[in-house]
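task queued by scheduler; priority normal; single chain, no ligands, no partner chains; default sampling; output format set to structure tokens
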Amino acid sequence: MLELKLGWQSLRNNKQLYLPFTLATSLLIGVFYIFQAIINNDSLAKIPTASAINSIMQVALVFTSLIIVVFMFYINNIVAKQRNKELGLYSMLGMTKANLFFLVLGVDVCLFGFSLVLGLLIGLSFIKFVLLAFVKLLDLKLVHLTVFSGQALLLMVAFFLAIFMALLLVDLAKLSQVRPVELWNATKKGECLPKNSWFTKLLGLAGVATLIGGYYLSVITKPNASVITTFFLAIILVVIGTYALFTSASIFFLNLLKQNKNYYYKRNHFITVSGMLYRMKQNGVGLASICLLCTASIVALVATSSLMAGKDNQIKQSAPLDVSITSKKITPATYKKAQELAAKYKVTLINKKSQRISHLALANIEAGKLKISQDANTANYEVLTLPLADYNRVEGTNYHLKNNELLVYATDKKVKLKQLQIKGKNYRVRMLSEYKYRLGDVATLTGLYLIAPDAKSAQSLLNIPLNETYSFDLKGTDQAKKNYSQAASQQLRGRNSENFVTTKVEVSEIMNQFYGGMLFVGLMLSVTMLLTTGMIIYYKQVSEGYADRARFKTMQQVGLSLAETKQAINSQVLMVFMFPIVVAAIHLCFALPALASVLKLFSMYDLKLLLIVAVTMLAILIIIYLLIYSLTTKVYRRIVNAD
């Protein structure tokens, strides 16, 4: 009973430590529950992109779970360190280790119980709004998402119970290995002064080299099937380089400042540099974590926001007309059926287009030679061919070609060709600036449309037969056009599915759901990472404050004024916490080329749009970061009694 009373008293007396921990854990529990409730919702299985969205949500949940585990162990270590002084006092007053075990058990059980109940309340309170946003982003009409999920609740309780059990075991294991006096002095014990050794310099150089390697891979990535693998390799190198850089380069930099006597032997600089040097190992890891979390959150937001912003452009590219039918041979029965459906659903077929075009082939262009590739990981182009007469008819142009000439349209405007060798024959190339009604299978890589003088030469270019296409727009009410499109996608395919039918309604629905799901996941992950970042900064300030309190008290007793104390604190905190956001901005700049290549896989080519989104999101992140910095600095000053 005494242990429970002391545990409850400890929770009340250390609200500055336990309350933020409980609130942050509760918010993470709420986020975890929301993810699980959406994943376990059976209604999502009815939508066309259910499997893709579920896979994205599963990956996001795994990533969120890893963030939660690392965050809770990191923060628990700081909380336990501050709690040890209290435990040391109880031990010296006669409490046995068994009593201390029960005290720690009571505190952890209370924290788990409070966090779980509050987290569930947060999850159930906000899930309705989150689900409304989810339905809106995915443009879902007939899907009913339930607010309460028993399966999600059980998984949430099991996951966080496992984490709290692990934290409790760690706390008890540490408690069993130390003496009372060590507990009492734990919060006063600082880190050893890191030396500017050869190992530190070597680690710093390795960090710089690894970071440059990651930047290099990001910059040179090309929009092919291996871009995602390359991007992840670049991310791993940047993560390793960032930790090494912050841990070693910060020590090296501070030692340089210390050696500069004109800088170091000034009151504010002396306090700042000497204080940071004694805890730089811990600072380096913490600052690197803050930097990487900021980078990850901004990259996730930029990528998903860019995809969502470029969605309409991709819909237009994938379905330039309302209905498109592709077949080896479009029969009169297909034309007749299309007209019958128009009469049935009260729409008019307008802007009719027909052309012949090949299936795509993967290819590379090396030294002016077009080479067919069977490897999707190394190919740079998706090539299609069509006759000149079909292009002129569809686009309303009047081009003429000789036998050794080709018209070429590239979906990437940077592609400029003057000569092209195909199967040993040289062709003069005239680049086209527009192909409004292009059709075909282009979906990921740069599309290259080769327009030959006639149908025979178009087919022989790559030895791929030409398909016939019939496309048109619909005139009528929105509901009538939707009804027609839904019927056409089923009834115009033919008995043996000899026709491939694409409708703008279906394409829009799929892209709204897919990109809406991506944006939703990006927002949820960013909120989780920013919440984690804010709490890491907060507890870092708390930890630093308790460690610095005695030092600042001593300096005030020997003449340091309150104003000078505040100035020194601001200088130290500013120096420490501005590094991560500056480096995160640099990471983002080098990540943009790789992001652009990844986005090209989704046919999002608007570089200007990507830059606008990146600058906007970075500005928002900096504002949030500065707000967190301002709030946590006040906490630090209160702890060292500088306010």
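post-processing summary
- The chain is about 65% helix and 10% strand.
- The longest strand covers residues 348-358.
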